[in-house]
Design brief:
alpha+beta, Fructose-1,6-Bisphosphatase, Chain A, domain 1, five-stranded mixed sheet, 9 helices, 21% strand, binds 2,5-anhydro-1,6-di-O-phosphono-D-mannitol, binds magnesium ion
Length: 336
């Protein structure tokens, strides 16, 4: 194959768009806007280690100015990168209670952006990888400005989804329903360059990732599943490795590349998980399925769930296809 040289995210998006001659370019431009916001957030996240010099976030810095928390900063950056472009009808963010309208002075467009601007932000001070997660839906309401109806669509209708991981390097991973592509930010030129083409997740992994401190809160079937993974009775014939960062994007990203299962299950008492359907579970489920993996709430495909509220939580089991299906069988009591 001829050497293509470095493929920037812009070039990749333009090339993908050629498969859709009817496309207006709005969608490609929206992805590019997200990449731009990601670079701005990455720059700030990389400065987080300087907090002792510049001032702790949420407190005053040496100049006596209030330093904004990074998750609030990320939320604002995304909004400002999107509000005036005419590509969105509204947004919704894990950081805000209600849908975020496009200001009256700007035009609106045919897409909705749902996002978690900085997931895992409690890990920042320990220099642990954190991430931004996004989901794009098409507007379905009839008015000009978006409504909650546009936000509460099942994940199976997503047009695109992705995340940015601020790790030892910054990466953007996304799908628009034709495979999963990963780009690594080259900070010297300020461009995301294609580094992972058509990512596929191994069908069966060797890693499980969950907060096992919650073990006593889980129901018996789930506990049996975790015990099984730690035994040599499992499908691999030897114990799975336990890897849990406690930062969803980082845990998901590692399992996507190496294979494995991530679980944030329901507590037996509350029947509720911790993670949010619209901002976390749905986008990652779309990516997982596009990479040949699967995502479930334990009983049902995540992408089939009809959302009822903006901040709805869900149990999440996501990762290698065979592993997630097996977890479902344990939860249903069909396997011991
Ligand atoms: P956040 O949205 O408040 O940052 O919380 C989400 C994070 C995820 O990144 C991670 O998977 C999970 O919470 C970890 O929770 P726990 O500390 O209970 O294991
Ligand atoms: Mg979050």
């Amino acid at each position: 194959m001829a050497n293509q040289g470095a493929v920037t995210i812009e070039r990749h998006i333009i090339e993908q768009q050629q498969d859709f001659p009817e496309a207006t370019g709005d969608f490609s431009a929206l992805l590019y806007d997200i990449a731009f916001a990601a670079k701005m957030i990455s720059r700030e996240v990389n400065k987080a280690g300087l907090v002792d010099i510049l001032g702790l976030t949420g407190r005053e810095n040496v100049q006596g100015e209030q330093v904004q928390k990074l998750d609030e900063f990320a939320n604002e950056i995304i909004f400002k990168a999107m509000d005036h472009t005419g590509r969105l009808c509204c947004l919704a963010s894990e950081e805000e209670d209600d849908i975020i309208p496009i200001p009256k002075e700007f035009k609106t467009g045919k897409y909705v952006l749902l996002h978690d601007p900085l997931d895992g932000s409690s890990n920042i001070d320990a220099n642990v990888s954190i991430g931004t997660i996004f989901s794009i839906q098409r507007k379905i309401s009839s008015g000009e400005r978006g409504t909650i109806e546009d936000c509460l669509q099942p994940g199976s209708r997503q047009v695109a989804a992705g995340y940015i991981i601020y790790g030892s390097s910054t990466m953007l991973v996304y799908t628009a329903g034709k495979g999963v592509f990963g780009f690594t930010l080259d900070p010297s030129v300020g461009e995301f360059l294609l580094s992972h083409r058509d990512i596929k997740e191994p069908k069966r992994g060797k890693i499980y990732s969950c907060n096992e401190g919650n073990y006593n809160k889980w129901d018996d079937n789930l506990r049996r599943y975790i015990d099984y993974l730690k035994s040599d009775r499992n499908a691999n014939g030897k114990p799975y490795k336990s890897r849990y960062i406690g930062s969803l994007v980082a845990d998901f990203h590692r399992n996507l590349l190496y294979g494995g299962v991530f679980l944030y299950p329901a507590d037996a008492a509350s029947k509720n998980g911790k993670l949010r359907l619209l901002y976390e579970a749905n986008p990652l489920a779309f990516i997982a399925e596009q990479a040949g993996g699967y995502a479930s709430n334990g009983r049902e495909r995540i992408l089939d769930i009809q959302p009822e509220s903006l901040h709805q939580r869900t149990p999440l089991i996501i990762g290698s296809y065979e592993d997630v299906k097996e977890a479902e069988r344990f939860i249903a009591g069909e396997q011991e």
